[in-house]
Amino acid sequence: MRILVVGAGGYVGGRLVPRLLEAGHELTLVSRNAQLVASRFPETSVLAASAFGQPALEGAAARAESVFVLPERLVRHGSRSCSEEITAARVVGDVVAAADRADGGRRRIIHLGRMGDAPAGTPASRPGASSDVGAALTAAGAATLELRASLIVGSGSAAFDMVRKLADQFPIWITPTWVDAQSQPIAIRDVLAYLLAALDVDETGVVEIGGREVLTFGDMLTVYTHARGRQVRRIRVPVAAPRLSDAWVSLVTPLPAGLARSMIDRLMQGTVVREPYSAHMFDVRPMGYADAVRLALERTSENRVETTWYDTFDSPRKGARDTSQATEPGPVPSPEAVVGGRRLLIDRRTADVVASPDRVFAVIERVGGPAGWPAGNIFWRIRGVMDRMVGGVGMRLGRRDQEHLRVGDALDFWRVEIVDRPRRLRLRAEMRVPGLAWLQYDVEPTAAGSRLVQTAYFDPHGVSGYAYWYLLLPVHIPIFAQTVRVLARRAQAKSRGL
């Protein structure tokens, strides 16, 4: 079957695409992060989200027999990102409906929506009603099946990360009333099962999907701690305090302010399946929450996390010209090309290493995350805290895989732009800085082994950018110099088998 997948770079899309390919389907993918998706799925045709409304998207819809529309990022109802999502959905619906009118076909859109994503009293909050995105998809008459899911639990999911970080860090919980809101959390593998099964049922409308049990968020925390062999105490307070909770959750979990509030709002607005019978058309028997937690923990501990919620997370960097949204897939331009002739500030360090390029690159690829940074790790942590204080991502994102990186991965407050083993690794900074910053590692073969070249690029924006660079030079110079030396020593020790 020829399938168009819109939102292929998101948490769910990044897991659905390999399963569709394994089933033998021919795919065209659309993503806001086209370069990321093209590098991950080279056997597919990839369009950038900027193609909405253009002939490329119209042609893709005309060739498709089915269309998946999946959320590619976490958004809060009423936000600008939410409005952009609705606008994009309307364009997809229009294009699919136009393709049906042109050839007399009946393509079906399969959309994954979110339960609890609309305030009480709004049309989208009623049982069996389409979400705002679902309504936009059907506005032009396109046949649409919308699966509205409860909180999704799996390795790398936002709900699982929120539960895991809260439960792992505190033996005593002070819980406001929203923690007692009921939910019906569903495992990511069950969500994928519903999406795949939807290809074989000729239905439209809205189907609410959830897991086997109805639990409060407090229950979700308790079940997780039992799975970890821990006990905790809860102290209830008689207030909802969603705004204060958002600040607290964003402080102690990877979810930034706003996204944590989005999760809390969904819980308070209702994520329990209200019309369970419509899901019976699918041959899917959802697992229990405890089993979903166990599988997520296993995947995380075994370093087998396929996708994360922050794969397409946008860092709110004030004043920085964003280079993350590529208009078309293809080679990533160099920092020199990105700045378009403006002066780059550069710090370059080299070290000769008695080790093969493969061994040197393997050492470089393991930096960051739980392992920390080779030099000045405490300063990196302080810089992360400062970034979070001004609304940035800080060091909270960590890394998806502890051994290997891929294009688009988050690495603390960096984003991976290039992975060309064993020659080049390039990271783009996502912390809030008055400019654009990259950290690049090049490994060149030599007669004695390898030459490691570390280059820090900075494109300053205005006077504040230059001030930032030169004021931090006394800190950056020793850290950058020591980083190269430590990486070289580690590579040589690895080469000697130490």
Itemize the secondary structure elements and their pairings:
Blueprint: E1 2-6, H1 13-22, E2 26-31, H2 34-40, E3 45-48, H3 55-63, E4 66-69, H4 80-103, E5 108-114, H5 132-138, E6 143-149, E7 152-153, H6 158-169, E8 172-175, E9 182-183, E10 186-187, H7 188-198, E11 205-209, E12 215-216, H8 217-227, E13 233-236, H9 242-252, H10 259-269, H11 289-301, H12 335-338, E14 345-353, H13 357-364, H14 377-389, E15 410-411, E16 414-420, E17 424-429, E18 435-445, E19 450-460, H15 462-495
Parallel strand pairs: 1-2, 1-4, 2-3, 4-5, 5-6, 6-11, 7-10, 8-13
Antiparallel strand pairs: 9-12, 14-19, 15-16, 16-17, 17-18, 18-19
- List the total number of helices: 15
**Largest sheet strand order:** 3-2-1-4-5-6-11
Largest sheet: 7 strands, parallel
In CATH, what is the class of the largest domain?
Alpha Beta
Per DSSP, what share of the residues sits in E-state strands of 2 or more residues?
A: 15-25%
Low-confidence stretches: 317-327
Number of distinct beta strands: 19
Task: Write the CATH homologous superfamily of the largest domain.
Answer: NAD(P)-binding Rossmann-like Domain
CATH second-level architecture of the largest domain: 3-Layer(aba) Sandwich
Which term fits the overall shape? globular
The averaged pLDDT comes out at 89
Please compute the radius of gyration using only Cα atoms: 24 Å
C-alpha end-to-end distance: 52 Å
Binned, the helix content reads 25-40%
What is the subunit organization of this protein? single chain
Look at the helices and sheets and give the structural class: alpha/beta
